[in-house]
Amino acid sequence: IRSTPEKPVHCLTWAKNLFDLCFGPEDESNLLSDLAAEMRQFQTQEEVDGEVVGKKIFQSLFCDDIEKQAALEDLWSDKRPPPQPLRFEEAAARTDGGAQNGSAAVGQGQNGEAMLETQKVPTVSGDAKGFVKAVAAMYAPARRGLIGQSCFSKDDPISMDFVHCAANLRMENYRISRLSRWDAQSIAGAIIPAVASTNAIVAGLEVVQLIHVIAAVAKKQPIRESQCRTVWVRYPEPSRKKILQPSSLQNPNKDCFVCGARTARVAVRSFADWKIAAFAKSCVQSAMGAHRPAIYHNSSCIHDPEYPEASEEAEEEGLHPEWSLTEWGLSSGSLLQVEDEGQGFSCNLVVSEDPELSEEQFPAGFRVETAAAPPAEQEDGAAKRKAEEAAAAEEAAAAKRAKQDVVELE
Cα 18 to chain center, whole Å? Predict the structure, then answer.
């Protein structure tokens, strides 16, 4: 990253560190800390000409420093040629390397596909002038007070311009293919375009469904009779060329832990090995679908999502996330209550210890068994069984009496 970048991501990481070095607080762990003394001379909140400062930084980083690197002959070979310095006047006059050249029309790529302006690779001139412009913007009256306190953010246009142009200029130094702002922002901000697009689509659908819910409530209409739908997002592999696939709302699943109060059985390999905080995260959240569960035992809260780690505040509330299930007094057959107010989720857990729990089949160290029927259904089932048993007993008694009548007649 510092001396021999080989990929665009190396240059983007260098550029992000450069922004923090030039405009952020002092940080000894910065990868470019060897340039700190040189860059600090430009870090001032006094009224200065930002364009002049930008050109000085340009000269220092993309010309003088590159010439020093190129002089280190041990680093270079025929397969890895030394970097080439860039002077601002020369770079500002170069119109090569951008998407504007060639046969691509405005708003179209090389193959004729539609392109946003941010998806085009700028010229070397565009990067050079853009870098100086970004530095000048940082020294403008509106931002000058933030010098020494700023941190890179992909959502800040000025800091993103600085990082994009600086990274592209370094790529030009080291003969690496330069990037469009779109690609640079995706890498610098750790954005996965497909995931970001899907998240945006789902967020929009959630708002639409919320509008349907509010409309149904206003009309005092049952949700299932409203326009609410379950919508599946088939992206990036659409079905029949349709990204969105709506379907009617499904009935609650009686075996679902989230649809209502249920009783489930959880077996763990060892109570002593499970901390209550780890149990809540791995079992109750990950396996059972709770979001922020609170766990109760004998009407006392033994886990609160507000205190996931040991702290003085947690101890004051009588909570100890670091305690094991054994330390909380749990044993095989103990009954826990789980409440997740955010989801309206409640569930009873019967926990048991099973030292012979298969490590191969249950590598997580626990097993969640199918939920039992809720109390009302259990009562209905018991009543039904009793009625069936009573009817069978009555039939047996009638058959016995009939047999006795036959014997008496004989």
Answer: 27
Cβ burial, residue 33 (10 Å; 0-12/13-18/19+): middle
Report pTM: 0.51
Query: Which of the given ranges, 21-35, 84-98, 136-150, 159-173, has the highest pLDDT on average?
Result: 159-173
Instruction: Determine what percent of the chain falls in helix, strand and coil, rounding each to the nearest 5.
Output: 45, 10, 45
Lowest mean pLDDT: which of 48-62, 119-133, 233-247? 233-247
What confidence tens digit (pLDDT) does each residue in 18-41 have?
998 888 888 877 888 777 777 777
In 3D space, the residue among 319, 283, 282 whose CA is nearest the CA of residue 300 turns out to be 319
Evaluate if residue 65 carries a pLDDT over 80: yes
**Per residue in 118-146, is it b (16+ CB within 10 Å) or e — as a string?**
eebbbbbbbbbbbbbbbbbbbbeeebeee
Closest alpha carbon to 304 in 338, 270, 274: 338
Residue 321 and residue 309 in contact, taking contact as beta carbons nearer than 8 Å: yes
Q: Please enumerate in sequence order all residues whose Cβ is within 8 A of that of 269, keeping only pairs 6 or more positions apart, or say none.
A: 353, 354, 355, 357, 359, 362, 365, 366
Helix (H) / strand (E) containing 302: strand 300-303
The model's confidence at residue 9, banded by pLDDT at 50, 70 and 90, is very high
402 sits in which H/E element: helix 375-409
CA distance 142 to 94: 31
Asked if 289 contacts 338 with a C-beta cutoff of 8 angstroms, the reply is no
Whether 285 contacts 316, CB under 8 Å:
no
- How far apart are the C-alpha atoms of 297 and 316, rounded to whole Å? 18
DSSP per-residue codes, 215-257: HHHHTT--GGGSS--EEEE--SS-BTTBSEEEEPPPPPPTT-S
Residue 293: burial class (beta carbons within 10 Å; 0-12, 13-18, 19+): buried
pLDDT band at 357 (very low <50, low <70, confident <90, very high): confident
On the question of pLDDT at 164 being above 90, the answer is: yes
Tokens 């609650």, residue located: 252
**What is the CB neighbour count within 10 angstroms for residue 291?**
13
